[in-house]
Write a structure and sequence with these properties.
The chain is α/β, with parallel strands linked by helices. Among the domains are: 4-127, Rossmann fold (3-Layer(aba) Sandwich); 141-259, Transcription Regulator spoIIAA (2-Layer Sandwich); 384-439, Nucleic acid-binding proteins (OB fold (Dihydrolipoamide Acetyltransferase, E2P), Beta Barrel). 36% of the residues lie in helices and 22% in strands. The protein has 14 helices and 22 strands. The chain has helices spanning 13-30, 53-72, 83-88, 90-95, 111-121, 134-137, 166-170, 178-190, 218-226, 246-254, 271-277, 283-296, 315-328, 355-378; strands at 4-9, 33-34, 43-48, 77-82, 101-103, 125-127, 148-152, 154-155, 174-175, 195-199, 207-209, 215-217, 233-237, 261-263, 301-303, 305-308, 334-337, 384-392, 399-403, 409-413, 422-430, 435-439. The strands form seven sheets. A six-stranded parallel beta sheet has the order 2-1-3-4-5-6, sandwiched between helices. β21 (422-430) and β22 (435-439) form a beta hairpin. The protein is globular and about 60 Å long. The relative contact order is 0.08. The model has no long low-confidence stretch (mean pLDDT 94). Bound molecules: S-adenosyl-L-homocysteine, iron/sulfur cluster and FE3-S4 cluster. The site of iron/sulfur cluster has 10 residues, from α7. This is tRNA-2-methylthio-N(6)-dimethylallyladenosine synthase. Monomer. Belongs to the methylthiotransferase family. MiaB subfamily.
């Protein structure tokens, strides 16, 4: 009988991507079957996130629950991976000695060997090193039935924003060789994928080697991906303002396959706070990128991440952020209260902002952005939208669900053979979290 595997994942899209690779790997190399039930699993893996403290607390709660299973099942393997694993390493075993394997985001490809060793030798294994790019050479070919797929192009981050744990948990930026990426996207396209989402902490820092030893920029990579047959829409997450260069804007101008929706985190609208965050750009520089983008793509929608309550953020700094939000007219965005992360410079900055003030700021910011997002949705009523049909709607089996270029979910009546295709729908109703539409017969 095949062994059973359960993988639980928290955190960003990169963690989701890594987990899908772990599953592929154990499925292909070790014939593991996936299960949703922890009590029937032989291997339980957690892929963790440490971007804010709540994410980290989740790990120990979950381990507490799994510990009981271990008492009832001899030989059950428990592994912890992801960013908390790199951050805490050995400490995880100090607090939870029943954990068998601790692996990092850059060593997950070694899991089959680690599991085997742990089963045979009954000794704990810790491998949270950062071997350069070896990961991609060791992963199985992608397999998917979906119309949209994520492809990692750059790992790690070298920006060291003063508040952020990622450079310490994922290592420095390492670009994947270009041929490797193009080969993977070709394989995905042959499996029916129509939309690609290029992944990395800072995708526009991409500097990949070609087989002839030249360096390929992010703009060049975008053009190459757009030339792959079958790929009709391209997205990327996340890009950083400091490397959002004019050659990337030029790709927006002449390559319609690049989606008119950009997630470009700004974090704050105050130059003082941006400097303290070590973001390396000013508000004017950010606005100038958006102005140039809107010159070539007048309807592009922009989303962002914001941190409120950063140490030293005054009422005036916060008002500057609110002003930027209105000036840019951001669409749906992510926003968080500053969370001091161990070992980061900002965790030592003195902060006297009362908790209630932080909460009020977050509430005000989210309310404004939500209203702006609703306005964008309202403007879509009665328009024609090109959507990628992703599957059956969760609400009713008569309905399909699809995604618009600006990332809205649309449900509409249609036949199953439309799944995986781009089609046109007319938007007939705006609901609070999705849109309703009607198929336009072509
Ligand atoms: N590389 C991307 C985002 C990485 S993390 C970028 O630089 O934009 C995702 C988001 O988490 C960040 O954009 C930031 O808004 C938030 N974040 C990171 N560290 C944080 C912290 N210490 N406290 C609160 N939010 C944080
Ligand atoms: Fe963190 Fe800054 Fe790197 Fe983004 S760019 S992952 S916020 S250090
Ligand atoms: Fe979390 Fe690590 Fe992603 S800290 S946000 S899982 S890079």
């Amino acid at each position: 009988m095949n062994k059973k595997l359960l993988v639980k994942t928290w955190g960003c899209q990169m963690n989701e991507y890594d987990s899908s690779k772990i599953i592929d790997l154990l499925n292909v190399s070790n014939n593991y079957e996936l299960t949703e039930r922890p009590d029937e699993a032989d291997v339980l893996l957690l892929n963790t996130c440490s971007i804010r403290e709540k994410a980290q607390e989740k790990l120990f709660h979950q381990l507490g629950r799994w510990k009981k299973l271990k008492n009832n099942k001899q030989g059950l393997i428990i592994g912890v991976g992801g960013c908390v694993a790199t951050q805490e390493g050995e400490n995880i075993r100090k607090r939870s000695p029943f954990v068998d394997i601790i692996f990092g985001p850059q060593t997950l490809h070694r899991l089959p060997k680690m599991i085997e060793e742990s089963m045979n030798n009954k000794i704990p294994i810790i491998d949270i090193s950062f071997p350069k790019i070896e990961k991609f050479d060791s992963l199985p070919a992608p397999r998917t039935k979906n119309a949209t797929a994520f492809v990692s192009i750059i790992e790690g981050c070298s920006k060291y924003c003063s508040y952020c744990i990622v450079p310490y948990t994922r290592g420095e930026e390492v670009s994947r060789p270009i041929d490797n990426i193009i080969f993977e996207i070709n394989q995905l396209s042959e499996q029916g994928v129509r939309e690609i989402n290029l992944l990395g902490q800072n995708v526009n820092a991409y500097r990949g080697l070609t087989h002839s030893g030249k360096i390929c920029s992010f703009a060049e990579l975008l053009r190459l991906v757009a030339s792959i047959r079958g790929i009709e829409r391209i997205r990327f997450t996340t890009s950083h303002p400091i490397e959002f260069t004019d050659d990337i804007i030029a790709v927006y101008e002449d390559t319609p396959k690049i989606a008119s929706f950009l997630h470009l985190p700004v974090q704050s609208g105050s130059d003082k706070i941006l400097t303290m965050m070590k973001r390396s750009h000013t508000v004017i520089e950010y606005k100038s990128i958006i102005r140039k983008l809107r010159e070539v793509r007048p309807n592009i929608q922009i989303s962002s991440d914001f941190i409120v309550g950063f140490p030293g953020e005054s009422d005036k700094d916060f008002e500057d952020t609110m002003k930027l939000i209105k000036d840019i007219n951001f669409d749906m965005s992510f926003s968080f209260i500053f969370s001091p992360r161990p070992g980061t410079p900002a965790s030592t900055y003195p902060c006297d902002i009362p908790e209630q003030v932080k909460k009020n700021r977050l509430y005000k910011l989210q309310k404004t952005i939500n209203n702006q997002a609703i306005n964008y949705s309202n403007r879509m009523l009665n328009t024609k939208q090109r959507v990628l049909v992703e599957g059956l709607s969760k609400k009713s089996s008569d309905y399909l669900c699809a995604r618009t270029e600006n990332n809205r979910v649309v449900t509409f009546k249609g036949s199953l053979d439309l799944i995986g295709q781009f089609i046109d729908v007319k938007i007939t109703d705006i609901l609070s979290h999705s849109l309703q539409g009607k198929l336009i017969n072509q």
